[in-house]
Amino acid sequence: MAAEDEFQIRFWGVRGSIASPGSDTLRYGGNTSCIEVRCGEHLLIFDCGTGARGLGKQLCSGTPTPVVDADMFLTHTHLDHICGLPFFQPVYRADSKLRIWAGHLQPETPVRDVICAMMVAPLFPVPIDSLHADITYNDFRAGETLAPKPGVSLRTTPLNHPNGATGYRIEYGGKSVCYVTDTEHVPGEADENILALIEGADIVIYDATYTDEEFPQFQQWGHSTWQEGARLCEAAGVKTYVVFHHDPSHDDAFMDAVADAVARVRPGAIVAREGMVLSP
Question: What is the pTM of this model?
Fold first, then answer.
C-alpha cells in the first residue's frame, strides 16, 4: 500500500521514435516512452510505449494478483507512444480498471478510434474487443485542467508536434512534476505555453531528442534539444530538469556525454534511465 503522501515517478521507457534494444543502450534503456507516477494510492501512467510491457508485468505480479486501477494519459497517439497497449497485461484482466485520456484529437478522431485502428488486421491480430478490462476513453482539449482523483490536479497545454501533442503538469501534495514531450522549439524563441506550464515546477521531464548541433538537420520533425530544455527550465525557475525521449541512434556513450554536458550547464540535471525513480 502506497504512503498517503507519496509522490513518485518511475521510468519504464525513455527512448523516442522506435525501440532500440541492444548492448549499446543497456545503461539508459531502449524502450519507448512510459512513466509511472504514484500520487499516494493513485496510479497515473503517462504514455504507453514499449516500456509499458514491463510496467504491466510488475502491476500484475504478486499473490494474490493485485487489482489494477489506473489513469493513463497520452501525450499523443504516434505509434511509439501507444504500441505498448496490446502488451500491457492489465488490459486483458476483467478486474482491471483503466481510464485512457488524450487531449490532441477531439473531436475529429476520438482516442478509442485510434487504438482500434492500430489493433486491426492485417496490422495486429488481436482486436480491441479482446481487451477484457473496464476501459473508458476520455477526450479533452489541451489547455484544460483535469482532476482525475481527489487531491490530484493536471494542468495541460498544447505542444508543437506533427498532429498535435499535450504537455502535462501533475500537482499533488504541494509538489509538481511536468511531462513535456513531444515538442519542437523555434530557435531563439522560448515556447510561452511550456514556460507557463513549468513555472516553478519541482521536476520537468522534457523532450531532449537532439542536441543543438543536430537540430538543424531535423527541423519539422517535432522534437527539441537538451540545451533548449535547460534554457526553458532556467527561465521558469525549475528545480530539477530531466532529459528524456532519447534518440534511438544515441547510444550509452553518447548519453554519457550529454549527461556530462547538461550537468555543467545546469547542475543537478538528470538524464533519464529505465528503472530510475524520482520524487519531487
Answer: 0.97
